[in-house]
Amino acid sequence: MSNLSLIQKYNVPGPRYTSYPTVPYWDKKGISTKDWQNTLQYSFKESNDEKGISIYIHLPFCESLCTFCACHKYITKRHEVELPYVETLLKEWDLYAKQFSEKPILRELHLGGGTPTFFEAKNLKYLISTILKTVELHRDYEFSFEGHPNNTTKKHLQTLYNLGFTRVSFGVQDYAERVQKAIHRIQSFENVKNVTEWARDIGYTSISHDLIFGLPFQTVGNIIDTIKKTSDLKPDRISFYSYAHVPWVKGVGQRGFDETDIPKNDYKRKLYEIGKFMLLNYGYIETGMDHFSLPTDALYQAFENANLHRNFMGYTTNPTQLMIGLGMSAISDSWYSFAQNEKTLSEYQQRVEKNELPIFKGHLLSNEDLIIRKHILNIMCHFETSWKEEDMKFKDIIRVILRLKELEKDGLVLITKNRLIVPKSARAFVRNVCMAFDLRLVRNKPESQLFSMTV
């Protein structure tokens, strides 16, 4: 079957699998605070040694709305919101620190958003330095943050570097003026060049650029120009994402353009194939779904050493079991359960001020969930999985294999007696492979569209 025919056949709504079960399939009854605390404490005892823990901090403020963005954010130009929010974050962290039997060993810390560089450098320093006083650092710790090219300053970069940050990701998306206007994210190549070179000069060892294909008005010429400009700056890793058009989730924020302006189907896939071809030609190596890295980057090395991990922060080189999410809408992961914070700023801050963990929903994983989670994690990170070992078997494994037969016939998977491999040529369909394992999705197919298209 031709590649175009495969795209037409398998381009269906599907999850990106930053978790299993995916958020829409969490138990409707949610999770009790007691169950969350129990799994949190159990996981901490298991992992607070060689593995260490991760902290994700959600900094939701943005000065303007980017219409491609599906993140939880709060639009404001009032920078007096910074310090009160930082104080709430620190109070929430204190609530978590009290749950632990000993000082946490911090292996990974990531600032996401929103726009982390909305915050003044001095406020970020106060936030991070206060947390660091309460933890021990893992010998292989990694700190990273997301920076907006328009407002990331040398002071931001130097301040965070001095605190231990060595990785930064800049959101670029596309350099075409028409595309930038459509998504309300106007930034010049000069700005991206400046922040990239500043970061490199200061000493950051991993600089990433985020690019998106399938944006409104985007053409093949735009992709070629954007990839060429990106290669000139030679970031260590590149995320090359499909635009997730989910206006039913985010409302008017993703309706800043007409549906007919968005590249679709075979043309959208052409944008990706051309971009991928160029990235490979420029020396980047496909490392997990939608990610490309230079062979010198830690992401590629983690992939090669089978240490790549995936969670709500995306791909990470640190396979931590326990991740604490701080901030409005942040999601925590104890491996055995998930817990999401209140999604609105006021409710989040009110709950923390009452000395409550600000959880508004979550999911306690069943034994079946845990096994499926391992398989999906293996496929997303290593493009293979196995059910040879007893602890990787589950009741419906035969039905999963039967569902995979059609993909096997189309060359998207290779299946032996107890192993599955996704060939290099089929990695674009990795989400479809995971969907065959997703028993909660199979057993309860949605009546309306919940996810973006897989291809």
Report on the architecture of this protein:
There is one protein chain. By secondary structure, the chain is an alpha/beta fold. The chain is built from 16 helices and 19 strands. It has helices at 3-10, 33-47, 82-97, 121-132, 154-162, 177-183, 189-202, 220-233, 247-250, 265-281, 298-304, 345-353, 367-382, 397-409, 430-437, 439-443; strands at 53-59, 61-62, 74-75, 105-113, 136-147, 165-173, 206-213, 237-242, 285-286, 291-293, 309-311, 314-316, 322-326, 331-333, 337-341, 359-364, 384-386, 414-415, 419-421. The strands form 5 sheets. Strands 9-10-8-7-6-5-4-1-13 form a 9-stranded mixed β-sheet, with helices on both faces. A 3-stranded antiparallel β-sheet has the order 14-15-16, with helices on one face. The protein is globular.
Q: In the CATH hierarchy, what is the architecture of the largest domain at level 2?
A: Alpha-Beta Horseshoe
The CATH homologous superfamily of the largest domain is termed tm_1862 like domain
Q: How many DSSP helices?
A: 16
Tally of structural domains: 2
| Average pLDDT metric | 92
Label the structural class: alpha/beta
Could you name the CATH class of the largest domain?
Answer: Alpha Beta
Q: What general form does the structure show? A: globular
CATH topology of the largest domain: pyruvate-formate lyase- activating enzyme
Indicate the proportion of strand residues. 15-25%
> Which stretches are low in confidence, meaning pLDDT under 50 for 5 or more residues running?
none
